[in-house]
Amino acid sequence: MLNADVKWIILSYKVPAEPSTLRVRVWRTLKALGVVYIQQSVCVAPKTPEVAKKIEALKRMIETNSGEALLLEVERFANGTEQELRDLFNKQRTLELEEFLGGCQLFLQEIESETAKGNFSYREVEENEAELAKLQRWHKKIAKRDFFGCPILGESKRRLEQCDQTFNVFMHKVYATEGSAEGKIHLDGMIRTE
């Protein structure tokens, strides 16, 4: 989370209509950085070393590909504007985290469903382990863009921990069930010679 004396970067850009891949790449890069659009093709972000470096590289890429880009650094905004921007950033993170929490809920429901069915297979462990890894990467990306302490970030961390703990309990049940079954198959299939 950034302190009260944050500096800002404003990027205004124009890219050619074709090829559309440049426009999409610019948009995706900026969204991944967590910028807020204040109008079409004009976005603002807190000036952190990583954000500044990536936006400067993006500016060069736009200009290299026949586009136009103007990069401004702002020390201070007018009264109230900075708080409005912080609120916009937190609103954006809240929307992302609410979607993330929905993903966690689906994950927990899946584990609950498989547990209720007694479906304790290694296949389920692999599938749910991959889903948990996706949730962890997703949360890490959102948290990295949380410049101003989104109010539900703590809740999202707790829910991710709940997913991790629930998965570990499920995984131990699978290993207890499948490990026991594998041991029986192994012992029953042994040929004893004396």
List keywords for this structure.
4 strands; disordered C terminus; alpha+beta; Alpha-Beta Plaits; 4-stranded antiparallel β-sheet
> What class, by secondary structure content?
alpha+beta
**Count of alpha/pi helices:** 5
β-strand percent reads 5-15%
Helical residues, percent = 55-70%
Number of strands: 4
Q: Which term fits the overall shape?
A: elongated
Distance between the termini: 70 Å
Residue stretches low in confidence (pLDDT < 50, at least 5 long) are: 183-194
- Structural domains: how many: 2
Q: How is the largest sheet built, in terms of strand order?
A: 2-3-1-4
Describe the SSE topology.
Blueprint lengths: L7 E7 L5 H14 L2 E4 L2 E5 L2 H16 L3 E7 L6 H37 L4 H23 L8 H37 L5
Antiparallel strand pairs: 1-3, 1-4, 2-3
Helix pairs in contact: 1-2, 3-4, 3-5, 4-5
Question: Would you mind describing this structure in some detail?
Answer:
With 194 residues, the chain is of the alpha+beta class. The chain has two domains: 8-76, Alpha-Beta Plaits; 85-189, no CATH class. Helix content is 65%, strand content 12%. The protein is built from five helices and four strands. The chain has helices at residues 20-33, 49-64, 81-117, 122-144, 153-189; strands at residues 8-14, 36-39, 42-46, 68-74. It has a four-stranded antiparallel sheet with strand order 2-3-1-4. A hairpin with a 2-residue loop joins strand 2 (36-39) and strand 3 (42-46). It is elongated, with a radius of gyration of 24 Å. The N and C termini lie far apart (70 Å). Mean pLDDT is 90; it is low at 183-194.
